[in-house]
Amino acid sequence: MRVMKLLLLSALIATSIGAGAANTKPAKARHHTPPVPLLWKVSDADNAIYLLGSFHLLKPGDYPLSKEVDAAFSDAEALMFEVSPEEMGSPELGMTMAKSGLRTDGRTLKDDLSPGTAKKLDAWLAANQGQLQKIGMAPQVMQMFEPWFAALTISVLEMTKQGLDPKLGLDAHFLTAGKKDGKHGSGLETGAQQVALFDTMSLDEQRQFMDEALKSAEEGPKEIEKLHTAWRAGDTHTLWTGMAADMRKQYPRLYKVINVERNDAWMPKLERRLKDPGTDETLVVVGALHLLGSDGVVEKLRAKGYKVERICSACRKK
């Protein structure tokens, strides 16, 4: 579950796999209040950036968003995402990931798995043929891919079965809103860089990822629902202790690559927005993990002397 949780709040490109598999029937909203925002404003002398923590797959009931988030979007002249709007909305993104995950060594997926894991995979494939067909993948085709891609596919399809939809993710929402309002959007990294996060996983990490994906499928929606509830509540403590801190302990190399190194690479680009002349504001929408804890860009910017404040009226009432 640790890697699966990480995907929801860190790696946007992962959602490109399940874009066609989400339930297209209108869902009845269960929530009656907007999510509490994971929103910070970072300022220097003349301008600011808003940092908004995203959940990369959401439900219809997660909208509308809070007034603070809408106000930040209205105030911003430009948007920034993990990857550019052009890549985010491109069908080539998923194709690039699939091409990277395609085996070229003459082996099959089962060759990399233990007999027990291979048996569980066969059971999952047999039970989910319909979901796979929605994304144009027959069960036998899965054998052509490396474990990380197969595990990613299983994870994202399981999330869509729980009502989470990539097309409703916070990134996708502001991609559409930005285009409608004519606000310039840019990316902090490329899709190819995100693909490399998975394609460079060690075989042991890939096997762990597969075991976790299949275990999560067996256990059902409880853990993902817990994480979604914490995101809706703006609960930074639960999100950190329930995901990031555990990930840092159990998968230190992967945590460093997926979170720490990317945050460090983003910092000069974020600071450039603050140092640019003029008073233009920017709304930055990235996976919530990148904003949390001492490794997050919020604390990294605070440490550089910028004024940092969380924008959350509901938080102040607690």
Spell out the key features of this protein.
318 residues; six-stranded mixed sheet; 52% helix; globular; alpha/beta
Strand order of the largest sheet: 4-3-5-2-1-6
How many discrete domains? 1
Helix content: 40-55%
Number of strands: 6
Order of helices and strands: HEEHEHHHHHHEHHHHHEHEH
How does the overall form come out from the CA principal axes?
Answer: globular
List low-confidence stretches: 24-29
Please tally the helical runs, counting DSSP H or I stretches of 4 or more residues. Answer: 15
Largest beta sheet, briefly? Answer: 6 strands, mixed
Beta-strand portion reads 5-15%
Structural class by secondary-structure content = alpha/beta
Report how far the terminal alpha carbons are from each other: 30 Å
Rounded to an integer, what's the Rg over CA atoms? 19 Å
Q: Report mean pLDDT, rounded to a whole number.
A: 87
Molecular structure report:
This protein has 318 residues and is of the alpha/beta class. It has one domain (2-21, 30-317). It contains 15 helices and 6 strands. It has helices spanning 2-10, 67-75, 85-88, 92-101, 115-127, 129-134, 147-161, 170-181, 191-199, 203-219, 222-232, 236-250, 252-275, 297-303, 313-317; strands at 39-43, 48-54, 78-81, 184-187, 282-287, 307-310. The protein has a 6-stranded mixed beta sheet, sandwiched between helices. A hairpin with a 4-residue loop joins strand 1 and strand 2 (48-54). Helix 7 runs parallel beside helix 10 (203-219). The longest helix has 24 residues, at 252-275. Mean pLDDT is 87; it is low at 24-29.
